[in-house]
Design a protein that fits this description.
The protein is about 15% helix and about 35% strand. By secondary structure, the chain is α+β, with helices and mostly antiparallel strands.
Amino acid sequence: MKQANKEVFYADEQIVKVGWQDIEFLKERVGDTERKRIRLCAHKGVDDKLQEMFIVLAKGTYIRPHKHLNKAESLHVIEGSADVVFFDEAGAITDTIRLGEYSSGHRFYYRVTEPVYHTLLVHSKVLVFHEATLGPFLRSDTVFAPWAPDESDVAATRAFTEQLEQTSADYIARRGGHHEGKT
């Protein structure tokens, strides 16, 4: 693989093969990244029509709520657990889905085809997942929620995340504690 920056690696073989060694390589390095996230891109570059990534997020990683214009996105959990939280335009939670690896009994996959604000709250030490979306990658196709803090404001993101974790837990409790799978 070739390194694009501290958070991004690209597979550099004609036939891309990903094994446990590759995931361990990412997990070993995620703590060295400023934003506590790292990825291995299976596609060759930002212009590819299909963008597939193996992503590792450390617990406490802030993913600013965002939506994608003109593209679908799917996520398949390989290791760890998290909640994916969906919001309406005003920032109210519309759904929370507990995600986990297949053996956890929780949902391990989701796909979003419409532009809807979403984020991940990582519960395990790391969350490892495979994500696929349509390319090319254009920054203008990602819209960040105006009601969520920018990731550069550490104090605001911490407060937002703490509040969101409580609000999300309350949302799940109102649904009778149902996490979309075995608990």
